[in-house]
């Protein structure tokens, strides 16, 4: 690629960290007598509708931590888990701060960091992303969040905000994500795009097929592969 | 100190990095026939009045990069430097992204990072702080800036914003700074405070005297000394 990329922005949930596997593992360790795979996916599937409320203005700016808690309260009810204390619920909700990176994540980021500025572009709030980085050893040059822009992806303020922060043009920023809707939005605002395949994002019972990636500048198997293609 | 400090927020210009020495060195290397010590101090002294314009609402939100450039244009005129190209001025202005840490800074931060979340709380913009961290190897857990809060220190939104980001109480955050006005403001909003003495902040011709630090929770000679007192 003969492109003057200066900044690489990474989607986080699913792309950089394994939310499904991390939640499943912790739910199993808690000894809750439920299907941990379904619980993880139910929690995550409440996320888009909750953000949509904020995006369309039906709800004022609300952190993901708070949205995650609202969804958690609903699914605890759905899964008939009634014995958790408030303290246990608070701790469980912060599982999103303790998500494990994929096996290739840290090595790939360190390779990319040598040549590029590597940043997050996540709908997760700043505190969540900072705690997650400390927990997983994610070597970000800068943590950027919807919370900085007061807009959730895929609003344009988020993608264009990264370019503005670093005083570069949109085409000098590349978004890396495993979600094609995120990449398509970024592309429509002039960013470069790289798809990374995370087949196990939703767990082994729902293997993700490889989507049509012909619209994007790059497609990679993981972050190390991405680094080989970019560095 | 038997205090439940969870987050340590660091002032940056002067406290974490040596703006005066870094600017002096680069001005001397450029071979400009001016007093580099006076030039550095003139540039820095334009900073408070420029931010005050934003703080009192006379100017809409303006990044420090832009304020630095406005001040630079004025002092280049004052120092009768007329031969620099626009490209050279842009590069010179970005000197604030290339400030060197004090000799103890990185080691002290790494010690403190083991026990606490370490973050910036600077009036510098996010891009500046991210570039500076990459340049100097500053191991922040999170880079926070006035730009996130759209308020410059000493506005309360900045100090209280750090606590809000991490969902902790103000007294669980400690501000570290070499400027007593910054610390006094932080204290008035309920934060813990640590003074670090940077005798050479304004250069060897203006050694800073040790101020009255009796109002603050801690006083330290440098970041390594601070770590000894806190870890």
TrEMBL record, chains A, B:
The keyword Hydrolase is annotated on this UniProt entry: yes
Domain of life: Bacteria
Xref: SUPFAM superfamilies: HAD-like (SSF56784)
Catalysis: reaction(s): an (S)-2-haloacid + H2O = a (2R)-2-hydroxycarboxylate + a halide anion + H(+)
UniProt cross-references to InterPro entries, sorted A to Z: 2-HAD, HAD-like_sf, HAD-SF_hydro_IA, HAD_sf, PGP-like_dom2, S-2-haloacid_dehalogenase
Pfam families: Hydrolase
GO molecular function, one term: (S)-2-haloacid dehalogenase activity
Top EC group: hydrolase
Record's keyword terms, sorted: Hydrolase
Listed EC numbers: 3.8.1.2
NCBIfam families xrefs: HAD-SF-IA-v2 (TIGR01493), HAD_type_II (TIGR01428)
Record family assignment: Belongs to the HAD-like hydrolase superfamily. S-2-haloalkanoic acid dehalogenase family.
Function: Catalyzes the hydrolytic dehalogenation of small (S)-2-haloalkanoic acids to yield the corresponding (R)-2-hydroxyalkanoic acids.
Name of this chain's protein: (S)-2-haloacid dehalogenase
Lineage: Bacteria, Pseudomonadati, Pseudomonadota, Betaproteobacteria, Burkholderiales
């Amino acid at each position: 690629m003969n492109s003057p990329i200066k900044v690489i922005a990474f989607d986080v949930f699913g792309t950089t960290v394994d939310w499904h596997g991390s939640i499943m593992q912790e739910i199993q360790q808690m000894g809750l007598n439920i299907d941990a795979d379904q619980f993880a996916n139910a929690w995550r599937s409440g996320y888009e509708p909750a953000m949509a409320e904020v995006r369309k203005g039906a709800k004022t700016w609300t952190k993901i931590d708070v949205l995650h808690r609202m969804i958690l309260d609903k699914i605890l009810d759905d899964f008939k888990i009634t014995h958790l204390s408030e303290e246990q619920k608070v701790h469980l909700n912060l599982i999103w701060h303790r998500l494990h990176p994929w096996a290739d994540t840290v090595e790939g980021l360190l390779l990319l960091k040598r040549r590029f500025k590597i940043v997050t572009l996540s709908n997760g709030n700043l505190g969540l992303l900072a705690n997650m980085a400390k927990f997983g050893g994610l070597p970000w040059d800068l943590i950027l969040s919807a919370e900085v822009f007061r807009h959730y992806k895929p609003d344009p303020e988020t993608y264009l905000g990264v370019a503005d922060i670093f005083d570069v043009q949109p085409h000098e920023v590349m978004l890396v994500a495993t979600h094609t809707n995120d990449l398509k939005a970024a592309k429509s605002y002039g960013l470069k795009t790289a798809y990374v395949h995370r087949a196990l994002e939703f767990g082994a019972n729902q293997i993700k097929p490889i989507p049509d990636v012909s619209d994007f500048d790059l497609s990679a198997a993981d972050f190390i592969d991405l680094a080989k293609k970019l560095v």
